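agent> call fold_tool(seq_1)
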Amino acid sequence: MERTEETNPQVTAAEQVGPAARRRGRPRSFDRATALEKAVLAFWEHGYEATSVSDLTRAMGIGAPSLYAAFGDKQALFAEAVLAYDERHRSFAPRALAEEPTARAAVERLLREAAAAYTAPGHPHGCLVLHAAANCTSPEVEELLRERRNADIAAFRRRMEEGVAAGELPAGADTGALARYVAAVIQGMSQQARDGASRGELEALAEIAMAIWPRG
């Protein structure tokens, strides 16, 4: 019987054999990378909880057995989708932190590029990692997303601490509070983008946010 949800206890014949056995069988009739990107867009648009396996198979253009054989269950597919999202749609964030010569310039670029990315045409607005957490009832997925958000804050803080060490920021600057401030601004920008804010409006918000940046 074909499964329609990830909680279905029934196991298909394809799932009863190991990965090596499946590889020796009939080759896939779909492009895995393309299907994964479609899953990214589905989760990005609707969040984790509201995106059913049926929604995913419809968006990806594959059957449930193919989804389970190629990606595992819905939770495993979502975890892979988050990684793909980071690589394809959110790489601007680590680049800004790594490439700019000062912490201020890095954060200013980060916010400016977030305004552009969160409102770009061709995909859902806002941030998948932030939106997918809404109304989520899976403890494992909640933890995955929490760890991802906290990793961002840790990266922001490391960049602030580099700024303190370089004398760009005051020696007594609260780098933890600054990092959380940046995260809060980005989270707000994501939600406002989903609510219809334009790129220009988010860029204006980013400019105001930078007005309080401490000087060394």
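agent> call fold_tool(seq_2)
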Amino acid sequence: MRRFAKLSLVAGLLLALPLAAYAAKDDTLQLLDLFGEVFDRVRTDYVEPVKDSDLIEAAINGMLTSLDPHSGYMNEKAFQEMQVQTKGEFGGLGIEVTMDNGLVKVVSPIDDTPAAKAGIKPGDYISYINDDAVMGLTLSDAVDKMRGPVGSKVKLTILREDENEPIELTLTRAEIKIKSVKMHAEGDDIAYIRITSFTEQTTDLLHSEFDRLKKSLPRLRGIVLDLRNNPGGLLDQAVSVSDAFLTGGEIVSTRERDPSKTKRYSAHSGDELVPEDVPVVVLVNNGSASASEIVAGALQDHKRAIILGTKTFGKGSVQTVIPLTGHGAIRLTTARYYTPSGRSIQALGITPDIVVEQAKIEPIKNSDKIRTEAELRHRLANLQELKAREKKKAEAAKKEDDDKTDEEKSASNRNGKLDNADSNPADAQDFQLQRALDLLRAISIYSKAAPDK
């Protein structure tokens, strides 16, 4: 009798799976009996008292995390925090992580957060948190250790591939409020759109911010969509962002174990963000994961954008959050993503059309010994240059004679400040972005030069 009572308890705790499923395998009941025996032995003989709930939660989490790095159990507190995070506001360091070989691996730091400002990079491994080893912890345990009150500090020990010694960083926890879409004008012809994550607000922000930006772009020649270090987020937002650039066709499909449960998501016609003839370059790197890869893959397969940068992270699996009444929720991997052409993103990622490694831009100073035609004596004058100089002098003289009213000067100052507000001085040092801008402007020149057909 005790044995069957114990089995009923264990079966109920293990997510209440139907006993009919166990009857198909003779040894399943014996394995459940083994679990019940171990559970009883631990609760009665372990050196210190342990809560039954802690044991069961640890057992469930162990079962799920053994499946893949993205499945796991969330207690009520963790489940509530996850719900808050998808809304775009949460507390912590601003870092998207996964588990790899027993260590916490950084998928991507989030822009303008303590992690990003401290220089944490995609691919970094966190080996110690406050001098406590990460090895042996679950992902949720490690995340809990990195969270804490706003303003408090946490010490991380980082292992980086190109560094011989561990890197120790002390970060101050902050309230993370993510504005997932940022954009500005590059000159008067290109829109730069940066999506940092896919939250509930992303698509609405994309449309509202772009409507504002268009007013300062009298001649839109191209768009740079920056998805670098974007760890992903909500599937429906990845679909709607892709839809904003496409006029039709499949965006992504999700395929479960049961083929009849395959889902396909398609773009709608007539609601695209920009006309089809405006070229798009999408920037990606190894910190672009999940939802970012869905967008990049869809635009690449439909030939709507040129993908530029380095290979993406390769997270092509779908996690379904299943609430458990009174016991938090489980995050279970239930499907794989496939791009419109049928490619699986999983563990392969998106390979850019043009591979451009990030690099440091340094001007090369020409040798003083190298001479040009302009430095030769008795050289021929450039008649166009002489006319341009005369015109410039005339314009300068006219400008000195013009008396501007105070109101005109004020308006000029305000306009100057408005234009500068959308510029980013760091752009000049971003090698991948500069290549994207060069490419878009080259496409624009080529399109104008090409004869009509």
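agent> summarizing second result for user.
Residues 204 and 241 are 9 Å apart (CA to CA). The domain at 181-355 is CATH 3.90.226.10 (2-enoyl-CoA Hydratase; Chain A, domain 1).
agent> awaiting next instruction.
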